[in-house]
Amino acid sequence: FQKVSTSMAASETLNVFFLSPPSSKDTKNYSNPSTISTRKPEIDSEFDFERKFTVPLAENFKKRQWKHNFRGIPWIFDTFERENAHFLRIFCNKLNKSRLWGCLAHVSVFSRSSRFICTEKNVDFDSETHFETILPLSKENIEISVQISIKAVIGLSLSPFFDFSKPKSDIFDAFLLVEGKKVYVGKQYLATYSPFLYDLLDGTPEFQLPNVKFVDFIEFLHFLYPTDTEMTSSNVERLLNLAHRFEVEILKSKCEKFLISLDSMDAGWKLILAESFSLSRLQNHVLQNLTTEKDVQKVSKSAHYRQMTDTTKTSLLNRVLEIMEEKEDSDDDDVEDSMPDESDDVIYVE
């Protein structure tokens, strides 16, 4: 191994160990499912992450898959059945078929019910190597937790890491109190995105933020700092609320773009969010995607319609009128196309 230092956020450095060139390894041997230890490894949030899984065991057991992105590195977890046994398989950076990258990680799999570690080992992940282990038997379902600790990488870049719960004088120069806990921030950096937060901190190194959860505010900060945190259907509304409250327009815009791309969300609820946070592009997108009178009726009959303001209800009514006009114009065009061309009946005489 060759040790080097790679520059991270501000003056933070990450020690990276370059692995020897990735080689093909035999992944067919199953890890020993017997208990190795009763002590659950401690999590270092800078290089470690944990995922919890519940796998129902039924006659129609099907392969299941989960995805997780940690500091810019994609991970895939799947469970499957083979020869009357159930297995867990873990892939790192699966879609990258290059042989120039590698990731050395310590993998621990333990039962959530017994808290015993079922398997733990170091794995040299590369384009040809993954982790596989047999899962402990259970009558109804399998409940496991997987902890992965990254030890070294080559050919990959780890996204910057920020721990807002700990002081770091070269990055943070103030802190906010959220639910009685200190959240460390950079005042000048926050001023770039949120004049509201900057004014709160102006003249005082600390300020109590009421009516906000600690975990939600930490998540909010991860979207202001250069991290790989992903926006999802489950956190977008939470982020939108905080972005609106703290006047972070760039995050509001990101939330709006995400909502526009989110096909799974009900159109009526999107209209509620649009009017609540003045998201004109989102409202326009929803209205333009209501292409028939039936589409508009579906929204008007939903439970969300009662929560809408008269302004949004008027926009829906106008959309119905537009659809009717477009339909009439289309019918007129069809009639004109079906009429004979009068020029065909003209006789020219020299």
SSE arrangement:
Layout: E1 2-7, E2 13-18, E3 48-56, E4 64-70, E5 73-82, E6 85-92, E7 102-111, E8 117-125, E9 131-134, E10 141-154, E11 174-178, E12 181-185, H1 187-193, H2 195-201, E13 206-209, H3 214-222, H4 236-245, H5 249-261, H6 267-276, H7 280-288, H8 293-300, H9 310-338
Parallel strand pairs: 11-13
Antiparallel strand pairs: 1-2, 3-10, 4-5, 5-6, 6-9, 7-8, 7-10, 11-12
Helix pairs in contact: 1-2, 3-4, 4-5, 5-7, 6-7
Description:
The structure is a single chain. The protein is of the alpha+beta class and 350 residues long. The protein has three domains: 2-154, Sandwich (Apoptosis, Tumor Necrosis Factor Receptor Associated Protein 2, Chain A); 174-265, Potassium Channel Kv1.1, Chain A; 268-332, no CATH class. The protein has helices spanning 187-193, 195-201, 214-222, 236-245, 249-261, 267-276, 280-288, 293-300, 310-338, and strands spanning 2-7, 13-18, 48-56, 64-70, 73-82, 85-92, 102-111, 117-125, 131-134, 141-154, 174-178, 181-185, 206-209. Strands 3-10-7-8 form a four-stranded antiparallel sheet, with no helix packed on it. Helix 5 (249-261) runs parallel beside helix 7 (280-288).
